[in-house]
Known about the structure:
Radius of gyration: 17 Å
Order of helices and strands: EHHHEEEHEHEEHH
Low-confidence stretches: 185-193
Strand content: 25-35%
Shape: globular
Structural class: alpha+beta
Amino acid sequence: MASVWVGERVRLRGGEPEEWEQLAVEFEQDSTVMRNAGALHPPRSRASYRQWAESTNKLRDDDAFSLVIESLPEERPVGWLGTTDVDKNAGVFSYGITIGGEYQRRGYASGAIGLVLRYMFGERRFQKCDVDMYAYNTASLRLHKKLGFIEEGRRRRRQFFAGAYHELVLMGMTVEEYAAHHSPGYVESTGPN
């Protein structure tokens, strides 16, 4: 049986502290990547990144985790994905994803998102995934629409950077929408009986 953590182009796996540190330092060099990940921060020391990496690498539980995105063709870390805002009572989760600038638009983000959706919906029984992104990030908006996410609203003037205020776009996908978009018959074949 194949691993649920391996797709056509990517593998999601735990990262070593030096890999997290490497990714953080790479991302820091690209202001657009940093802004897309949440905010542009002043440069940090390698020691502070190592400390962050060691805390990131600790598995919190089966629903709240951070994983390295490894490119199968290049066999190297190209980004990270972590679940956030996990609400087990409501069955809702979110995630954050960052792909290094030189690895964008190669299918790594869509592959990684597909793997985490399959795991959270199919193995952990979550019923909804919420995500948000800045309105100027048209590549991410297109990707999420292509994956089947529905725009649910916008928060005006949510973030300030590069001399302007930016809207935050809220998107969501239910398990039924996932099943219809990604694998017909999914809910019937994997839901509880």
